[in-house]
Amino acid sequence: MLPSIEDEVAKWADDPAEELPKAIKRNQLPKLPELSEVEVVRHFTRLSQMNYGVDSGFYPLGSCTMKYNPKINDVLAGISGISELHPDQSEDTVQGTLRIMYALSHWLAEITGTYEVCLQPSAGAHGELLGALIMRACHKFNGNAEDRTELIVPDSAHGTNPASGTMAGFKIVVVPSNQNGTVDLKALKAAVSSNTAGLMLTNPNTLGIFEEDIAETAEIIHRAGGLLYYDGANLNAIMGRTRPGDMGFDIVHINIHKTFATPHGGGGPGAGPIGVTKELAKFLPVPQIALDKKRSRYYLDYDRPHSIGKIRGFYGNIAVLLRAYAYILSIGSEGLAEAAEISVLNANYLVKKLSEVRGFELPYAKGRPRKHECVFSVKQMYKETGVRAADVAKRLLDYGLHSPTTYFPLIVDEALMIEPTESMEKEELDRFVEALKKISEEAYSNPDLVKNAPHNAAVTRLDEVKASHPKTMALSWRMHRNRNVIKAATS
Amino acid sequence: MPKAHIHPYIPNSMPETKHEMMREIGIKTIDELYVDVPQKLRLNRKLNLPEAMPEQEARHHIEGLLQENKSTKDMPTFLGAGCWPHYVPAAVDNIVQRSEFSTSYTPYQPEVSQGMLQALFEYQSMVCELTGMDVANSSMYDWSSALGEAVRMAVRINNRTEVVVPRIIHPDRCATLQTYVEPLEMCIKKADYARETGSINLEDLKEQVCDKTAAVYVENPSYLGFIEAQVKEVAEIAHDKGALFIVGVDPTSLGVVEAPGAYGADIVVGEGQPLGNHLNFGGPLLGLFACRGEMELIRQMPGRVIGMTTTLKGDRTGFCMALQTREQHIRRERATSNICTNEALCALASAVYLALLGPEGLRELGETIMMRTRYAIRKLSLIAGVKAPLFKSPHFKEFTVNFDRAGRKVQSTHRTLFKQYGIHGGKNISKEFPELGQTALYCVTEVHSKESIDRLAQSLKKTVKGKR
Prior knowledge:
The structure holds 2 protein chains of 2 kinds.
Chain A: H1 7-12, H2 16-19, H3 37-48, H4 71-77, H5 80-83, H6 95-112, E1 116-118, H7 124-141, E2 150-154, H8 160-167, E3 171-175, H9 185-191, E4 196-201, H10 214-223, E5 227-230, H11 244-247, E6 251-253, H12 256-259, E7 274-276, E8 288-292, E9 297-301, H13 318-354, E10 374-377, H14 379-385, H15 389-398, E11 405-406, E12 415-418, H16 426-445, H17 447-451, H18 464-468, H19 477-490
Parallel strand pairs in A: 2-3, 2-4, 4-5, 5-6
Antiparallel strand pairs in A: 1-7, 6-7, 8-9, 10-12, 11-12
Helix pairs in contact in A: 4-13, 6-13, 7-8, 13-16
Chain B: H1 15-25, H2 55-67, H3 90-96, H4 99-102, H5 114-131, E1 135-136, H6 143-158, E2 162-166, H7 171-181, E3 187-191, H8 202-208, E4 213-220, H9 231-240, E5 244-249, E6 267-271, E7 287-291, H10 295-298, E8 305-310, E9 317-322, H11 328-331, H12 344-381, E10 398-402, H13 410-421, E11 427-428, E12 439-443, H14 450-465
Parallel strand pairs in B: 2-3, 2-4, 4-5, 5-6
Antiparallel strand pairs in B: 1-7, 6-7, 8-9, 10-12, 11-12
Helix pairs in contact in B: 3-12, 5-12, 6-7, 12-14, 13-14
């Protein structure tokens, strides 16, 4: 695989084995696999066949927006003009990329209704951390960082919100949802004080319900001197209809891998740019991609004295962001609005169809339209048959479908959180409904069949307790091997 | 009626389907689905974005823009500094492009995600073999954020308030660390280096490390490319005061340079990009994160970890996410980190890369890099007025090139090198380390042939001699 060393290089160079001091020279090579290329390719191809992706079929994982990832975007990201570009190259040699990123940041500002967008965060949670740090920087700038110590999150929030807030040094204050599943304004008013740094909210929320009191919510927070943070996980539902910036949010993150159709990669990489108001723009990390209009030249702007500094190496997940640029260009302004509308239509179609399934119930705000997702509870089914949400999820795998998100949000018992996205055709939605109807019938007639599912997947149900128990865990091959050595020695 | 916007990515945008579904749910217009959006918050206009472009046009447009770039494929480039040019075998690209992998997400349903789970377990296992650690997570965003997380982990373990890092460190990495620990109100102290070798000054280090020190951090190879040889001594100084020892690595060195686990590291972080991932203008990258196998460390680890287990029936081996109770979706504000989306596909690329290389391949890679680096150093050293490197230590992949004796500035030298000879020089570090004078950091890997190194040497010679 490696090019051979030219004779002259060998002659001029030292023998590496002799160049390194003994103390630091590696004597025992790492125990890596010793395989031919053929074996490696077959191995990983076989593994890929034991993996379900968006291209495999319906993937209604709530809050994750598993929409179709257009193939052209991958092709474009593979061009050497982007893939072989070094981040420290002189700006003259990277004008094309800077121009794309500059345009993308402006498009995202338009979509979110924010003043300036920073493309750097590597993921949604990374954007949240940055957003919370900007809140902190802003309060510090205003001389009241010591008082502004509390960050409010609703009980229906994604787990990343409280986790990001804590990382940024805030104490988390949880406010309950009301019977409509939206923020309880009374409780919010009681929670805000001169200690409030801000509120983190997603809208539509994790129940798929639009927080219609958002303007009042924003006023409560702003009047208390806090800032409003928008968790962009659910942005797909509202593109072209309404914008977080117009709702009063000061900081907005965007999950590029969700809303803008880039592949989720089995867990990543994604990208989580944030947009902010004019007042907060000065705190964004360096560098920002800027345009010198006189010279029509793009450059990396480090001259931002109030910047919070760096949140990662270099400038962001450029290969992911390029795909988003291609997506927006391919689908256009009206296409984005259409994507939002159809994602909402699809979710409401499922609400209608699944409400007819025995044991399924739609908690909160009945009769109100959902946005991009809906959350059903199978509490009734559990009571009557012992079949839980997790069992329904596993049984769906037998029908060749991916399961929804389960047990989230935490305010719904036995939750199935379903996000069909705009990518699913009606026939696939119908197949999903049919599968759940059948599973419901099975639960009421032969619950064990469901409880022991899946039966047709690569493996049957796994022992997750064993995987995490200190006595049995094997988090690497080395750990597994050492444990067996110890076992053999003691037995 | 408004024009229908049928789009190939949106199957139900077909008017008949759309209307059938609207009829089913009992609405006449899509607006009815947005009734709960208050009037005054509605946009009521089109987003000011381009109109949709057919695939062929979009492709042509983007290809055109990318042609304005000049990539490392178009010119010999000697840049590294945390993102390194390496050959990516075709088999790696081919595997990561398989959409069963690329279009999946976090393996919440392990029974239909065994492929990614096993691949990530193999990745973790190989990172452990490379670093000499017992446990690795399945990826962080990059080296910089991994370092930030590692120091925060140390603080969770020993509840201390200071961290000591070497003065020779990538400024952006140090700045990221600063951002990550700022909310903890930690103090970052810098240990000086020996002017002769670049190595950490042990006397100064001893003075900086105390019972407030949560962790001592070193990099091997260092930011400026020299090998840090006194690592055992550093480990001892850290451990004597009850601090954790964190080591940052370039993993391509670990076929020739000792595993940090063998010299006392408690946590290892690093940049996995050179293992089978393209440059991509600096992102995505791949944060390596590994630690020793004690439960007190494992419980405080950030990020997703894949474990090997069996089916409940016990009849088959399988893989699933382990220790999820550390993570944000379970533990919320008490989670060890907020990370959710990570760099799994880059980790997969690295797993494939390492499997293709094997142990001997990794050693050979390390030796090739060292020999080419040495060759480049010797060639550049022959140029009057050029000193390469500044430090008397063995170097791996990167080395400093100083132009002070030639009376040249890095910036103008590199401008000429590029304009006249079509070569992109190394990274200008004159502002980062003013005490090192007019100095650049050059990078040489297996992709730099003898011919390109010779061309660099000849061109640099002419440039340095030439008019300013």
